[in-house]
């Protein structure tokens, strides 16, 4: 299963209480339906072969015998389907009856997992019939199946993707203080199947959803929860078929309640393993009390690893919540983090003056808004903020006017220091032809601006606030010892796509329509360093024409730094996220650019100024990215070359 994706499903069959023949037919029908969708793991509800609400009928030999016979039929139905099926039923062992999950694969019963926590309160009275399952694994004979492992401490390992380790628990097991799945995860399980029969009461769905979501997060696992639904007895309770599939704290798919449903999505085992590898406090252990049962998926047609077709969606802006309310909350939180970080620095050094270069672009606009917020927190006059505009060869009227208007509107002190003459003198001093618009021509302007900011800060006893964002730092799109340098960088862990949302959010909260209009015009201005002369008064140097779209680079950066995905996996999910917007060759081109720049520009990140971390991804050499400046990119570029061959990209 390439790139670690596994297609999984939680399904609720319609049952008739105690009618094992009907129930088995419904289960097998769901199995074949899931197989057509190329599902590799199918989880069915608790005791669904008999029905959960059989009551004292569980004490009847006829029902138990019929349940075992039905299990055999289900086992036989899995032949050549390449699917693990987890199904619930009652099973006798040494004179005791157990509520179990049977794990089946390719016409074979791999193992039986008993319920460990048997509820006997309120509407639940399972202890009347069922014994408490042991953790220790024993071996039983059940009908034609001999020497079948039976116990809670069973792990089912996929040999063609050994990070894929399945464990099972049953309903109430999830609701106790330390669920069995917590132990299973520490023993190596990356996927948890829960066969459940959780009845509905008002508000219980939210609690259940949170349990599944949080347990998947605390165990850093994928969690498949399949619950009983329509067909169960409604004498005292009602079941809703509330199926949930979660991945490390995120609900991937959820069934509508009160509708028996087949809920399908893909889970990412590589992502789970990546998270565990990154979190040093998640300590898996080789527990001798666990028994591993191995199985292997087989591609009967191509005789190679299975390819999982993807239906799950990938957000184009992983740094920005898609829900507007969540996005607004995130933006407010980030602005507070940025402002509080700066507030602490200013208070610690007893500094009342902050100096920044204001260009009329997105980054310096956000930085000025953050500084103003920090000053408000400290009760300082905003006039102590010194915003310096330094027009030169590439400055346009639009950005200049926005810089001036924004500074005045926010009540900061504006200083205008044109740098054209100073840069021309410097270029003459070093013998550089002013008509050659190369990197020297561009960087001379950036370094002159930084020199001015540093010296103005010295004049007033202040500090220079950096404006560069994390996307620029990841790509190295900053002039070394120019705009790359400051005393404190408030945007240093904010990606470019999020900068845009932060400024937009700030604009939407304003009652001042003039200030709002300025911010909206800044948002509408092309991203540019404005280091080359304009054409007909318009910006001629557009950053995204040179290094690529920031929405692509931020997407790449998120999956490179957060999860360590390979280039081929990032390319695959980028094709889904940006379908209809960028073709394969464009995505490949800028992915190639990202890796080449990311590896070659680490020397700039290794000497970054301080700045507050605001999210789960950052590039500070003191925190999140300890990377040598001379690391080789050969392994990653080799994978990029494979993309060209796999997708027939000609560049």
UniProtKB/TrEMBL annotation:
<dbReference type="GO" id="GO:0005737">
    <property type="term" value="C:cytoplasm"/>
</dbReference>
<feature type="binding site">
    <location>
        <begin position="477"/>
        <end position="480"/>
    </location>
    <ligand>
        <name>deamido-NAD(+)</name>
    </ligand>
</feature>
<dbReference type="InterPro" id="IPR003010">
    <property type="entry name" value="C-N_Hydrolase"/>
</dbReference>
<dbReference type="Pfam" id="PF00795">
    <property type="entry name" value="CN_hydrolase"/>
</dbReference>
<feature type="active site" description="Proton acceptor; for glutaminase activity">
    <location>
        <position position="46"/>
    </location>
</feature>
<feature type="active site" description="Nucleophile; for glutaminase activity">
    <location>
        <position position="171"/>
    </location>
</feature>
<feature type="binding site">
    <location>
        <position position="198"/>
    </location>
    <ligand>
        <name>L-glutamine</name>
    </ligand>
</feature>
<dbReference type="InterPro" id="IPR036526">
    <property type="entry name" value="C-N_Hydrolase_sf"/>
</dbReference>
<feature type="binding site">
    <location>
        <position position="121"/>
    </location>
    <ligand>
        <name>L-glutamine</name>
    </ligand>
</feature>
<dbReference type="GO" id="GO:0009435">
    <property type="term" value="P:NAD+ biosynthetic process"/>
</dbReference>
<dbReference type="InterPro" id="IPR014729">
    <property type="entry name" value="Rossmann-like_a/b/a_fold"/>
</dbReference>
<dbReference type="InterPro" id="IPR041856">
    <property type="entry name" value="NAD+_synth_C"/>
</dbReference>
<feature type="binding site">
    <location>
        <position position="604"/>
    </location>
    <ligand>
        <name>deamido-NAD(+)</name>
    </ligand>
</feature>
<feature type="active site" description="For glutaminase activity">
    <location>
        <position position="115"/>
    </location>
</feature>
<comment type="similarity">
    <text>In the C-terminal section; belongs to the NAD synthetase family.</text>
</comment>
<dbReference type="GO" id="GO:0003952">
    <property type="term" value="F:NAD+ synthase (glutamine-hydrolyzing) activity"/>
</dbReference>
<feature type="binding site">
    <location>
        <position position="443"/>
    </location>
    <ligand>
        <name>deamido-NAD(+)</name>
    </ligand>
</feature>
<dbReference type="InterPro" id="IPR022310">
    <property type="entry name" value="NAD/GMP_synthase"/>
</dbReference>
<dbReference type="GO" id="GO:0005524">
    <property type="term" value="F:ATP binding"/>
</dbReference>
<comment type="pathway">
    <text>Cofactor biosynthesis; NAD(+) biosynthesis; NAD(+) from deamido-NAD(+) (L-Gln route): step 1/1.</text>
</comment>
<dbReference type="Pfam" id="PF02540">
    <property type="entry name" value="NAD_synthase"/>
</dbReference>
<feature type="binding site">
    <location>
        <begin position="357"/>
        <end position="364"/>
    </location>
    <ligand>
        <name>ATP</name>
    </ligand>
</feature>
<feature type="binding site">
    <location>
        <position position="472"/>
    </location>
    <ligand>
        <name>deamido-NAD(+)</name>
    </ligand>
</feature>
<keyword id="KW-0436">Ligase</keyword>
<dbReference type="GO" id="GO:0008795">
    <property type="term" value="F:NAD+ synthase activity"/>
</dbReference>
<comment type="function">
    <text>Catalyzes the ATP-dependent amidation of deamido-NAD to form NAD. Uses L-glutamine as a nitrogen source.</text>
</comment>
<dbReference type="GO" id="GO:0004359">
    <property type="term" value="F:glutaminase activity"/>
</dbReference>
<feature type="binding site">
    <location>
        <position position="467"/>
    </location>
    <ligand>
        <name>ATP</name>
    </ligand>
</feature>
<dbReference type="InterPro" id="IPR014445">
    <property type="entry name" value="Gln-dep_NAD_synthase"/>
</dbReference>
<keyword id="KW-0067">ATP-binding</keyword>
<comment type="similarity">
    <text>Belongs to the NAD synthetase family.</text>
</comment>
<keyword id="KW-0520">NAD</keyword>
<dbReference type="InterPro" id="IPR003694">
    <property type="entry name" value="NAD_synthase"/>
</dbReference>
<protein>
    <recommendedName>
        <fullName>Glutamine-dependent NAD(+) synthetase</fullName>
        <ecNumber>6.3.5.1</ecNumber>
    </recommendedName>
</protein>
<keyword id="KW-0547">Nucleotide-binding</keyword>
<feature type="domain" description="CN hydrolase">
    <location>
        <begin position="6"/>
        <end position="269"/>
    </location>
</feature>
<feature type="binding site">
    <location>
        <position position="204"/>
    </location>
    <ligand>
        <name>L-glutamine</name>
    </ligand>
</feature>
